[in-house]
Batch of 2 targets.
Target 1
Amino acid sequence: MTANGYLQLGLFLVVLLALVKPLGWYMARVYQGQPVGLDRALGPLERLMYRLFGTRPDEEMNWKSYTVAVLLFNALGLLAVYGLQRLQGALPLNPQGLGAVTPDSSFNTAISFATNTNWQGYGGETTMSYLTQMLALNAQNFLSAATGMAVLVALIRGLSRRSASTIGNFWVDMTRSTLYILLPLALLLALLLVSQGVVQSFSPAHTVPLVQATADADGNQVTEQVLPLGPAASQIAIKQLGTNGGGFFNVNSAHPFENPTPLSNFLELLAILLIPAALCYTFGKMVGDTRQGWAVLAAMTVVFVALLGVVAWAEQAGNPRIAALGVDTVASDLQPGGNMEGKETRFGITNSVLWAAATTAASNGSVNSMHGSYTPLGGFVPMFLMQMGEVIFGGVGSGLYGMLIFAIIAVFIAGLMVGRTPEYLGKKIEAYEMKMASLIILIPCALVLVGTAIAVVSPGGTATIFNTGARGFSEVLYAFTSAGNNNGSAFAGLGANNIFYNIMLGIAMFFSRYWIIIATLAIAGSLASKKLVPAGPGTLPTHTPLFVVLLIGVVLLVGALTFIPALALGPFVEQLQLLQ
Amino acid sequence: MQFVTKQLRPAIVALLLLTLLTSVVYPLVVTGVAQVAFPAQANGSLIVDSQGQLRGSALIGQHFDQPQYFWGRLSVTGPVPYTAFNADAATGSSGSNLGPINDALVGPEGTVQARITALREADPANTAPIPVDLVTASASGLDPHISPAAAEYQVARVAQARGLSVEQVRQLVAQHTAGRALGLFGEPRVNVLELNLALDGR
């Protein structure tokens, strides 16, 4: 990689980390009900909404009511997405006259967007009408993100309250997330993106003449190109900020109308990690000790940088088999070099690998290059980032509540080593919390491994594998890894828009998201009801470099122990074949 | 059961109201502002020539394989390369997902070798190593750019096919080359469609 490449990577991290404190501080105020400036303008609207909901904002919920509210709200959203897809042929705002989406694809997409996975089984521009994109997909981009943030805030309250029976009001947390955090950021980002060339239009597609006519496989002359438009910028802004990732167009953020310039790419990249990173500070602020938030953020950043290094090295080294054909793959100021298969010229290697790492560290899942044509070790990185449970930044809200569960496990393991009852932030960690934490860790792992195992031994699972050999296995492993951790990116060679994968991956996404939410809220409720244990000489401080290392160790260990055997069959074996 | 029914009304009303806000009001506001502030960008960055004719989009590449034009990245869209949308075939943007040891990519009949052969046949005198972006497929299938190295590789061929001097063609390439944004972000790149339109004098 050239010096400019390192500079771009470094600058991205610096800008990201510089934004953590201001945004994290702002979000803490939003969740603690303090004045934030925007509430002067939006306060009346917010209060009107609560009146229409029929809920009193100061009426708090215990963890069971909170869970019911989350699940009910998500179930209704899921049904709405399904219904809109099935009926889009009869609904307005459909200038290309697209028909109903198939039942299995609608099922998959409904779960996918409600669970903040945004696995894209469908081709955007060829399947979804403008109305479906807006009312179904765009709405869930906001609401699934707000759900994740609300659950996180409930868990933080559980950690910070003493002898309390309630953990907040879901309707308030969700509404405030949307009104004061997601909407203003999305509005700003959307307009910046339009200025770069991201389309935002309700006109039907343009038809333009080709400069050079071409012929299809049957010898028919093709003299025109059809350019699809749509209200893309508004949707892309929230798809990145909400770690959703489902594209307006089939190739997602590689499409020049979604991501036309290096600057649009930088802004979108920033948006992917912005809220998950800043929430760490929010967490510290809300538990009254910002060092706790910085420690968690440090653990995330260290893992991220290390794995970013691996994918950058692997892709820049390129494909020796292409170099062997007399092709120049050395990076210079005149060309990106490296493994350019499935990558865009304007992004080169640097911005493609940075995106690949960011989108899988966060549970975003949008892509600006095709992970399916990465080198074996390059493709291993996004897969492993997901397999650690989407806690390295992770989804908005969900990443941090996942990481806090890992923190609980880390203090538990440390407690075992010295034979003391473990505590985190002054709360005793006991059998009930550990049972729930174990479920949270084990469920995605089981969904990924069992799902992959079923797929590779059933005809429905192997029929649509694109590449042969180890890469074909990686495609299936990647798909279940992505669905089982609510990421949404893919080794997209795999044909996943069929009954087998739509249903299998739909089930994986559904159980992963909601099992974890239920168990997390159960922990929140249990912790809220506990007394505060004053820190003693035997308490493990959780803001020190030692704890950061311990936390990283636990995350890596769980990921590695669970997935190394499966990874050995995919990327590792393929890397050996590549070097042969 | 009572606490389930108690949450039903807020769930329904919240979904409706927030959908209205995030999916109707918000996109319409963005569209309204975008159409006023950035009309060209919001509508696809279209290229209109001096006669007022629509020629394409500055952001979406087109397919070229004749010697007098610069060639872009390989594209895996169907039914023809650089199909941005085809209603009949239900196809649109599409990227390459060929693995690095797949014969369809690196085998003797693979896409890389086929492109090398085509480039060499179009310009047998050129024995320079070919820049990698010229023999690999893009992520979108619509990539409008090639690297400056990939343009330089083709300059002699285009100059010869058009009876222009190498210097004249190089100058045009330079005019359609964009550097890194702020000298820092992204990669230097040449817009193939705009360059070819300029060569045709449009």
Note: The longest helix of chain A spans residues 545-579.
Target 2
Amino acid sequence: MSEYRIQGATGEWEVVIGLEVHAQVTSQAKLFSGAATAFGAEPNTQVSLVDAAMPGMLPVPNRECIRQAVRTGMAIDAQINKWSRFDRKNYFYADLPQGYQISQLYHPLVGEGYLDIAPDDKDPENTKRIGVERIHVEQDAGKLMHDQHPTMSYVDLNRSGVALMEIVSKPDMRSPAEAGAYVRKLRSILRYVGSCDGNMEEGSMRADVNVSVRKPGDEFGTRTETKNVNSVRFVMQVIEYEANRQVDVIENGGTVDQETRLFDPDTGTTRTMRSKEDAHDYRYFPDPDLLPLELDDAFIAECRDSLPELPDAKRHRYENGLGLTAYNANQLTADVDVYQRFEAILAATAEKVGKAEKDVATQVANWVLSVAPGVKNALDDADEGNDTTAANAAIIALSAAGTVSGGQAKEIYEIVLKTGREPDEIAETEGLKQTSDTGAIEAVVDEVLANNADKVEEYRGGKDKLFGFFVGQTMKAMKGKGNPAIVNEILKAKLG
Amino acid sequence: MTEITELTVAAIRKGVAGGDFTAVEVAEAFNANVAAASQLNAFIVATPEKAVEAAQAVDAKRAKGEDLGKMGGVPIGMKDLFATNGVQTTAASHMLEGFVPQYESTVSQKLWDAGAGMLGKLNLDQFAMGSSNETSYFGNVISPWRRKDGGNADLAPGGSSGGSSSAVSARLCPAATGTDTGGSIRQPAAFTGISGIKPTYGRCSRWGVVAFASSLDQAGPMARDVTDCAIMLEAMAGFDPKDSTSLNLPVPEWEAGLNPDMKGKKVGIPREYRMDGMDPEILKSWDDGIAWLKDAGAEVVDISLPHTKYALPAYYIIAPAEASSNLARYDGVRYGLRDLPEGAGLQDMYAATRADGFGPEVKRRIMIGTYVLSAGFYDAYYNQAQKVRALIARDFEKAWAQCDVILAPTCPSAAFALGDKTSDPLSMYLNDVFAVPASLAGLPAMSVPAGLNSEGLPLGLQIIGKAFDEQGVLNAGLAIEQRAGFTAKPEAWWK
């Protein structure tokens, strides 16, 4: 893979990128209170006395949130710290009821780990290892609403106290593509583990992007941090914009300020949010309301035992065990929804046709990755509820048995999506079956050859291209229902 | 028959259970005393109807032959740091004036469940910060005690549980809750001739108690004698899953376990508590205590707690540091006071609200706490103080190899007059010098009355015990109580 470089007036510049990803932990309850965490609920309906920081209220750690963070750490092969501690990060803001965020500065729950990323989607084996510095858990803040009143801002505390994992990478990335791949890979792992839904639009995953530039081989330059970037595309835009901006600043004789910046998705640019001088003094100190978090061996063992097969392992199994192409294996394993659909349909198909999974895997993979989405995307009245595992398996089985052609399979799928009818019944009633009866096909072939004796002569005289003509004529005579393989076979035999 | 309001918790409970009087009669007797003592300013809010209501429930239970509970028929005062459902809870601050919680603190709920009733919410130093109850937004609490010099100077009831100490010693309630962060139960108990125990950190749930310094705050009972403290502490203590620092241990039967026989017990006398220029009357009462415990069969040993002199400075770093963060929630956004000047933004609202809502002592501690946690100062102050705290805990650990309990004065002096120390915060802080080490180490400690000084004012003796050994502390306290024969009480000049 070619190296990403910014071409400046003084030569080439290298970009150094680190990401802090905030991932909302999937859990019924908040990190330190029993309040629910549903997204999109009416404002201030998911708020306990603790979340509103009423006088005398105390935090109690939610075991499930800790468990999810530990499992996430294990999924990136990270060190799990059996002893960790919560610290208070103190600052005033209206969306922060306690006046401090409970976080982990000094002793995080999860230590160093790594992610193997493939910046080029088409070349999944060409990977780069990106270090993860740490994962700690912390509380999310509430949300200010500025559009409810002409002169006042309102506060919604539904998100206040929701558990976040902050996943801090090392400054190991060198291009927007690498950063994009990192976020995608991380998102995939989080979704596999089930510790975060990875929904960037709803804000359950967002990134702080640290960017600096340097002449290749030099020391790290001064970095800027762009906060709360909420899509892979924006992360890449931020890096590109920031890197170029910093190069311009330096080449024009200036220096890059260590500062916090904001990204404007409308313009694709970043701007200063606060400079280092204005940086908060967060006055971190251990939260005296909470004892240190100590994990016992049984808890850690349960976390480990409950981990699913992870993307890389699954990809390798698909390639080596199921005989899929590297490309297909990569496509199928990139996202939880996709692999789950694939595995369900694969199992059902294998059972239906009475073969081993590896013998139908390629067919199922093609169906799941290209055929089915092609049909579905062309429809605007598909009912997702009709898109069952059983229906998909039944269609693939019909196709595998030669009962229906590829085209017929698509037609049947279309009807399934619209109506929910059974594929076998559709094939029967709608006449969507191909003929594999060799006797019937032979009769038609004989007729076609008899009617085109001149062409037969030409073919036999060496005009091979005419073979397609005979296939076409035969299929036409059979109204497209002849099994193409058998038609070919018989034609070849008869034409000698 | 003795007047009901002269009775102890144990006697009231017995009288109600035995039908000598009804719980309602008890509640009404104390309600009358509360109503007649407004001069003391011990209560921020009186809740006579709550006391009667609880008493009626106890009387009804008795009529049905049901168990009346550990505190059945005993009306008490509730320090206004405990959240009480439907009753204003202020922490004696303008910041929370008018704040009515929709929840009940664990400790107060346990007391109601045990058959106690609430006479009212007791005044205190604002956010429990103070040693004389002069920092309350709702005015000073006045001690019922007066010097016998005829000067009639208003004396401090101690703090921060000054409403509690004043009310119990003036017979406005037979017992009251207190909280102790650096002596706030023990010092006011000593100033007013009553008993009070701060249990092991974690014994009583902090849930629903307005926080001052989380790693130090502990609730405890204040009552007229050791037995009453044992009874009430049993009702207050217990594991609470809502407080992560709560001890997950069964509550011992302290009342049943009371035993003043000190044979086989060793009492440690820490030489570092004998300081230069100490009041001879305090030293004398300490010697009395030593003699009483010897008389009870104890062996007295000299011990050393070498880091004692660092305890007070460490305390005045750690407690304000935690307070500066704990009190950040009082911002005018969600409840309590909101000062929103015309055209003000968020920062202006914070500034105006907090400037107006907090008293000077609270502000002082928030500023100290903010300073010691600041970048560049954290290691020099907060971290250093935490190390000192660990050393102090280790001092005690070593001492326990030599003794079972430690005896020391509760305070360096008897009650001072209101206004005497308000201009000099450091001399005020010095009041806590003997109380703070046990707080930093999280150990149970109590104050019991030892006698009167030459001015006719009560002096207290402090017993510090091993973690979880409230029983040892209470027993030593009882041994002193039986020998001190403290029967003095203030004259009811306020009636």
Note: The mean pLDDT of chain A is 93.
